[in-house]
Amino acid sequence: MARPALVIRTTREDDWREVRDLRLEMLRDTPIAFGDRFERAVEFDEAEWRTRAKRGESATQTVIVAIEGDRWVGTMGCYVPDAATGPLLVGVYVTPDRRGGASGVADALLDEIERWAAGRADTLRLEVHEDNPRARRYYERRGFAYTGHRREYELEPGGLELEMVKRLR
User: From the first residue on, what is the mean pLDDT of each consecutive set of 10 residues in the chain (169 residues)?
Assistant: First the structure.
């Protein structure tokens, strides 16, 4: 049976339940990747989830999701922390059964993030944990390069966040 068409779009405040469910899935699946903990996020109230979902409607940040039928299968976010450093890619996640190049989920999400970021700057930055080789390989394939900047990861088990950048234009 064929999969439903992949829909790529921004989140809206009404999406708060889906945003919550996907975020909790992300935190369970890859605890070193999101600077947050499942145990903390599961306690957020509806107002917090609505605020997070509404980020997709903002002019200064975006949250993009991939949806197949009624199922949310991936997400990426981006915002501009300051004009000097430009857009920062955050919250990258694809559900396990949709990972890999054949599914096209990660590429479709990143294509949309790159379009959004290109309207704001010449480059797109990200930080990736040193112990996340799957993500590191993906970013390298998509043209990101290590800058040499690194910082301590704020949660256990620690380690380093490595900065990567891609020229967009």
Answer: 88 98 96 91 97 92 96 97 92 95 94 96 96 95 98 90 96
Nearest-angstrom CA–CA distance, 160 and 163: 10
Q: What's the gap between Cα 128 and its chain centre?
A: 11
Q: What is the pLDDT of residues 13-54, one digit of tens each?
A: 999 999 999 999 999 999 888 889 999 999 999 999 999 999
A 10 A CB-CB count for 88 gives 18
φ and ψ of 62, to 5 deg:
-145, 155
Integer Cα distance of 41 and 51 in angstroms: 13
Residues near 83 by beta carbon (within 8 Å), at least 6 away in sequence: none
Q: What's this model's pTM, rounded to 2 decimal places?
A: 0.94
Cα separation, 162 vs 159, in Å, equals 10
- Residue that is written with structure tokens 């990861």 in the block: 153
Task: Give the N- to C-terminal CA distance of the chain in Å, as an integer.
Answer: 40
Side-chain-side CA neighbours of residue 28 (13 Å) = 9
Both tokens of 158, joined, read 């620690």
Beta bridge partners of 63: 77
Q: What's the rounded Cα separation, in Å, for the pair 59 and 156?
A: 33
